[in-house]
Specification:
Elements (H helix, E strand, L loop, with lengths): L11 E2 L2 E2 L10 E5 L2 E5 L3 E2 L8 E2 L16 H26 L1 E2 L4 E2 L6 H14 L16 E3 L5 E3 L1 H7 L3 H9 L10 H13 L4 H66 L1
Antiparallel strand pairs: 1-2, 3-4, 5-6, 7-8, 9-10
Length: 266
């Protein structure tokens, strides 16, 4: 028999321990600049672009928020941009160049479109974006070395990121004049011009595809001509072989007749 003392008071009744009070969690509530917000957790991300709020305690008094730049996240984003460019540059270099060690030429060696794409990309990465504190990628520590490969000076980039708005303008500045656009917008316009539905790269790809189709048709025609020629030559060979056989028989007959004639006249 259980007594109403000690652990006996926690006897389970209907799946809930007797004497235990259950409190269900509630959404976090707050007011930002007079606007009420609500979050299912203590983290709020949707109200302020680029800012995450972490609620740590309850208060009804005004709270001042101190915002700092997430330089680590911005550095990773810029490094991703550099890595993506380097991957494209390496691919273009390998396909348009010649490997002196393996003595193998790239599949697009000498192709004017591919070479033009590579040169245009390198030229664009060395261009200027006027109108801001930073006007070139080199200003924020991104340098283009020999061979078109990008490197990042982390110290110089870190100092530039102390002014994130100027760095953002260097990449995102939108302008009707293509030369005044940020590098992100320049790349977007460049990609649309090269890889769009009527872009240079798309047109070149379609041209190569049509050339491959024509080559396949020509190969089929050549194969058909080869089959017909083989059949004709085989018939001629068989006819010639039969003629040679007849000549050999005639030669044997003539030789035999001469031999007999020599005997009869000897």
């Amino acid at each position: 028999m259980l007594r109403n003392t000690g652990l006996s008071r926690l006897a389970v009744q209907g799946g809930v321990a007797s004497g235990v009070q259950i409190t269900h969690g509630a959404n976090a509530l707050a007011t930002i600049n007079g606007i009420a917000i609500e979050s299912a957790s203590n983290t709020y991300k949707d109200g302020l672009p680029g800012i995450t709020l972490q609620f740590s305690q309850t208060t009804t008094a005004p709270v001042e928020i101190s915002i700092t730049n997430d330089k680590e996240a911005m550095t990773k984003t810029i490094q991703s941009f550099v890595d993506a460019y380097n991957a494209l540059n390496d691919m273009l270099s390998s396909t348009t160049g010649y490997n002196s060690e393996t003595k193998v030429a790239g599949s697009l060696q000498g192709d004017s479109t591919a070479v033009g794409l590579q040169n245009a990309l390198r030229g664009m990465m060395r261009s200027f974006t006027p109108g801001g504190e930073f006007t070139t990628l080199a200003d924020i520590g991104i340098d283009i070395k020999s061979g078109g490969k990008m490197t990042v000076d982390s110290t110089k980039l870190g100092k530039a990121l102390d002014n994130p708005q100027a760095v953002q303008n260097l990449f995102n500045a939108d302008h009707i004049d293509p030369t005044a656009q940020g590098f992100g917008e320049k790349l977007k316009t460049f990609a649309e011009g090269f890889a769009g539905a009527s872009g240079t790269l798309t047109s070149r790809s379609e041209s190569l595809r049509e050339a491959a189709k024509r080559n396949t048709k020509e190969q089929e025609k050549v194969n058909e001509r080869a089959v017909r020629a083989e059949s004709r030559y085989l018939k001629q060979y068989n006819a010639m072989d039969a003629m040679v056989g007849q000549l050999n028989s005639l030669n044997a007959f003539v030789t035999q007749q001469i031999a007999q004639w020599n005997k009869s006249t000897g």
